[in-house]
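Most newcomers find our protein records easier to grasp once they have seen one. A learned vocabulary of local backbone shapes supplies the integers on the structure line. Here is such a record, shown just as it appears in the course material:
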Amino acid sequence: MVDPLTQVITLLRPRTVFSKIISGAGRWAVRYSDFGQPSFCTVLDGSCRLVVDGHEPIRLEQDDFVLLPTTPGFTMSGFDGAVPVRIDPRAMPAPTDEVRHGTPDGDPDVRLLGGYFVFESPDAGLLVSLLPNVVHLRGAERLSTLVKLVREEAIAQSAGRDLVLSRLVDVMLVEALRATQRADASPGMLQGLRDARLAAAMREMHASPAFPWTVDELADKAALSRSAFYDRFTRAVGVPPMEYLLTWRMAIAKDLLRRDDIGLAQVAEQVGYGSASTFSTAFSRHVGRPPGQYARECRTAS
């Protein structure tokens, strides 16, 4: 059976970059500017407050896990109120010791293990749009263990380190994202997969992107009427079914265009277009530049 989540993470190609211990005590607050790369943290001890731009405040407790696939601006603080210290994560050097906020001495009120990684895929923005903006899991002991393993492996510099880290981050992402398939989760691909009927149609789209799907045919796969399927899909996933299909087709096309052994006509055929010119028009409209130019840029960059 085709697993859409596995396909998306495989195309994203996550790679671990950095992790650190963060602690806070007394009156403290930090304001991080927009970062753009995916970041994560788990609470080792204590509690603190997290406010991600555009979202309600979150109280973080021990063993809580947070994943921000694009890391917008956010404020993290204690509960006593303080003027936030502004931090630009792009300009800040990577610390080698524990980062302490607030009172420098004594036991901290909270200790977190956090970090960030990058998606090596140049198509990350398109794929991340299918994921939730904020993943917050309470009492996520399995994920806390995975994050600790990531840190230990990053520090150890042992043989095979990069391979182990890439596998750990893959598992961490899958574990975090599949745990968001709850009734109160934000709209997105995972929320659609939570609905058994919508999941049947989504798996068909992922398995056969070249097929000339229509809303009626996808509704049949979901065993729903056309209107019920369209409304239910749009509410759960956040975009209409044909827009979701287009996003997936373009993600596959971008991945194929980075290869040297496939021509434009073959790419067009594999993502459901009858000719290279029709595909080129659709790709240019969606991506902002022609597929040939995109392929050259990717090969030059690599």
Remarks:
- The chain has two domains: 4-178, 189-301.
- The longest helix spans residues 161-178.
